[in-house]
Fold:
Amino acid sequence: MQNISHSRVASVVASLALANALAGCGGHDNNGDATGQVVSELTVPNIAPTTNFSFDIGVVSGSRYYFTDRNNAALDQVDIPTKSFVTSIRGTGELAFAGLGPGPNSKAGPDGATAVGNLIYVGDVNSVKIVDPASSSVIKSIPVSTTGVRADEGCLDANNGLYMISSPEESPPFATFINTTTQAVVAKVTFTDAAGQPSAGLEACRYDPATDNFYVNNDGTTANPHGELVKLPGASIRAIATGATQNYTTLAGAAMYPEGNCDPTGLAIGPGADIAVGCREATTGSPLLLQIFDRTNGNLLASINAGGGDQLEYDPSSNRYFNAGSRWTATGLASSGGACSAASPCTPVLQIIDAAKRSLIKTVPSGNNAHSVAVDGASGQVFVPHSGATAPVGCSTCTTNGFTNGGITIYSSK
Structure:
């Protein structure tokens, strides 16, 4: 396990930021390709220019793009070949999504979306909902708690038919594992650290089939208050007795890799042994980072001034990462408390990173609160939902860049 000092990270970022500035790669494509060009802009039902559009994670499955939409209490569906909005998939009764609910986000849904075969598993308040896109319906609700907070982001071990989803606002936070054949909960893993303190929360998770490990961003522990990358061996998860709960520190082979001053969000399995971590630093004035680690040992391989995002995706066809940098700023440093406000505004961008060189290729403007991204390598398209320019407050560039109304921006990925 490598200890990453804040001074070392700051030094690396300063060097990279200077190199990027000299090369002009913040907003220009030095390769002359079409990466990041806007190819279409789609509207979303019931989202007006002044609507605070509350959406979350997106995913591509087959020829459709899906993302979670709390305003419409739905999983929204876009047809990729025609670049057209198809429908908002809603449930009824116990199958209905929570929607905006009483607020805040911790009590709203839907949240994370994960493709599981021909179905989409969706995190919601107290539950995971299963959506069948073929019938445009919610077909099942799997309870994971009764506390009124959300099950958030998930990931899939397709080899063993095991789906993991985190409940970050529980006390302590926990991950639920669901058998995708029986669609039943088989185990839970709690997140209380070695000092006996609950995790500060859980963010994105990924499964690595090459090594049979789950990875999850832990928001903070006693040892690593601004985040750690946790490795959970798949074999240890499958060894948990059916219906039992075990703490992550007691799982055989589990490892915790410090992420420095990160406050992690997005996570993406990259080429080779790389794993990329999106940071959304809450420390005012901190460099906004995207960090790349060796997932076998936690060694830091690169620290790039390209953070302030939420969802992070790797596209094998272009060998690039795409980071939805909703809290990026003009200086590349975290705004006040890491949040966007009228007094301390953000300048949202889509960040495009060369996975081979572990370096920033370019940034392109995006819309307000554009923190969700999904990539379709087959068509070369990137999907980024966003809110209107004025709600929520704190976007200083949205109107100037033409992102007046809420909707979905489609970019070219290569």
